[in-house]
Amino acid sequence: MVKTTINLDEEIYAEIVRESIETYGSTKKMSKIINQLLSSRINSTGKRMERITFRAKENLSSLDADNEIRKGWEENTK
User: Fold this and answer.
1) Of 55, 45, 52, 60, whose CA–CA distance to 76 is shortest?
2) What is the pLDDT of residues 15-49, one digit of tens each?
3) DSSP letters of 37-74?
4) 12 pLDDT more than 80
5) What's phi and psi for 48, nearest 5 deg?
């Protein structure tokens, strides 16, 4: 497991909190809910969707990373 901070829309956060409480009785399993939701995104061949990758320079800013990810996404959807 890797720890990271993510920013969620309020509606998405509320839904994850609700599901975590309904399923596990607390919000301590929110990571498990998110992992399950992402793991379920498997295409019909049983493989995960292709990942977008790019080489990152050591001093790559988050804005530059976002631009690289966007370019990779556009190339994959052509």
Assistant:
1) 52
2) 999 999 999 998 888 999 888 888 777 655 566 55
3) HHHT-B-TTSSBPPPP-----TT--HHHHHHHHHHHHH
4) yes
5) -65, 155
Read off the amino acid at residue 6: I
What is the rounded distance in angstroms from the CA atom of residue 43 to the CA atom of residue 50?
Answer: 10
21 alpha-carbon distance from chain centroid: 21
Place of tokens 């190339």: 75
Token readout for 35 is 């992992």
Confirm whether pTM is higher than 0.70.
no
| DSSP symbols for 3-20 | -------HHHHHHHHHHH
